[in-house]
Amino acid sequence: MARAAELAYVTVRDRIVRGIYPGALRITEQEIADSTGVSRTPVREALRRLQAEGFVKVIANHGAVVTEWSEQDTNNVFDLRALLEPYGAARAAELITPEGIAELRTLAHEQYRESEVRADGFIVRVRELNNSFHQVLQGYSGNPRLSVLLPVLMEAPLVLKTFATYEPHELLRSASHHLEIVSALEARDPEWAAAIMRSHIQSARSSSARLGNYVSVREAQATSDPAANQSPAAAGGRQAT
C-alpha cells in the first residue's frame, strides 16, 4: 500500500511540476489509478498528501483540482524562505560538522558541473541537487521544525518550475551561491552564511517572477485565441488523460 501510494504521489506531483497537469485541471482518482497501475485507495492517500503540500484541492468522490498559484502566493513563499533560510544557514555555521560541510561541498560542486555542462535532463538533476543542498543545510540548523517546514516551501509548484526558466548564467550564479555558502560554513561565519543565503533567495524570487509573467502571457494568448496553446486535456473538459 505504502509503495503504491508513493508511486501515485510521485507521478502526479511530477506531472504538476512539469506542467502536464496545469492549474485548474481536474484529475480523477480513476485516471491516476489507470496511469500508475495502482488501485484507487492509494491514489486517495496520495491526493491527500498532495493537498497538504498545496499541489491540489481534493473534491470528495471527484478526484482533485490542481492548485492555481497567484503572484501573491509565490511572494508569500519567498517571503517565508527569506526569513527562515538565512536563519537556518547562520545556525548551521555554528553547528555543522566537518562531514556535513563535505557533503554540502559535493552537492554544490555537482550542481555547478551540471549547470555548466547542461547535458540532456540536466534541469531535473540541478533541481534535485538544489533541493538536497537546502535540505541538508537546514538539517544542521539544530531546529527540527525548520527541516519539516522547508520542503513544503521548496516544493511549491511554481518554485519547482523556476529552474526551467533560468538562463545559463543564472544557473551558474545559483550554484556559485551554494559554493560560497559552503565557504561561509567552513569559516564558521553566521553573518556571511545568512547574507549569501538571503541573496540566493532573492535571485530565485526574481527568476520566479519572470516565470509568472511568462505564464500570464500564455494565459492571455489562450484567452484571446482559445484554439491556440490548447492541450488535448483542455479540449476535453480540462480532465487529464
Summarize the structure.
With 241 residues, the protein is mainly alpha-helical. 72% of the residues lie in helices and 3% in strands. The chain folds into two domains: 2-68, Orthogonal Bundle (Arc Repressor Mutant, subunit A), CATH 1.10.10; 71-218, Four Helix Bundle (Hemerythrin (Met), subunit A), CATH 1.20.120.530.
Describe this structure in words.
With 241 residues, this protein is mostly helical. It has 2 domains: 67 residues, Orthogonal Bundle (Arc Repressor Mutant, subunit A), CATH 1.10.10.10; 148 residues, Four Helix Bundle (Hemerythrin (Met), subunit A) (Up-down Bundle), CATH 1.20.120. The chain contains 11 helices and 3 strands. It has a 3-stranded antiparallel sheet. The protein is elongated, with a radius of gyration of 19 Å. The C terminus is likely disordered.
Question: What is the topological layout?
Answer:
Elements: H1 2-17, E1 26-27, H2 29-36, H3 40-52, E2 56-58, E3 64-66, H4 71-95, H5 98-117, H6 122-139, H7 144-154, H8 157-161, H9 168-186, H10 190-224, H11 232-235
Antiparallel strand pairs: 1-3, 2-3
Shape verdict:
elongated
By CATH's scheme, which homologous superfamily of the largest domain applies? Answer: GntR ligand-binding domain-like
Low-confidence stretches: 214-241
Structural class by SSE content: mainly alpha
Number of strands: 3
Estimated helix fraction: over 70%
Total domain modules = 2
Tell me the name of the CATH class of the largest domain.
Answer: Mainly Alpha
By oligomeric state, this entry counts as: single chain
What value does the average pLDDT take?
Answer: 84
What is the beta-strand fraction? under 5%
CATH architecture of the largest domain: Up-down Bundle
Question: Could you state the order of secondary-structure elements as H and E?
Answer: HEHHEEHHHHHHHH
- Sheet with the most strands: spatial strand order: 1-3-2
Instruction: Give me the number of helical elements.
Output: 11
Rg computed from alpha carbons, rounded to a whole number of angstroms: 19 Å
